[in-house]
Design brief:
Blueprint (H helix, E strand, L loop, with lengths): L2 H29 L3 H26 L3 H42 L1
Helix pairs in contact: 1-2, 2-3
Amino acid sequence: MTGQEILDWAVNAGFTCVFVAVALAFFRLVKGPSLPDRVVALDVITVAIVAFCGLAAIRSGDPAFLDVALVLALVGFLATVALARFAERYVDRRARALEEQKEREE
């Protein structure tokens, strides 16, 4: 077995793992049950797509895919931070609404 055959096998195995990861994360994204679960699933999908870009760069020999992966990783990070802040505010608003409702009932 030559080095190129091993690399081809490893890249194919990597693509398979990425596709499985995206499928499972998409299931978690749809199924939920909570907002943090969905945020983490979206982050996993983003990381898997970055891995896909890296594998595509290896397979094609074109380094442009690495630029795409870098930009996607940065955008994914910013999206995760934004969604985490949204989730935090959502939880705070719900807690305040429940407190106000309890005060009104008393």
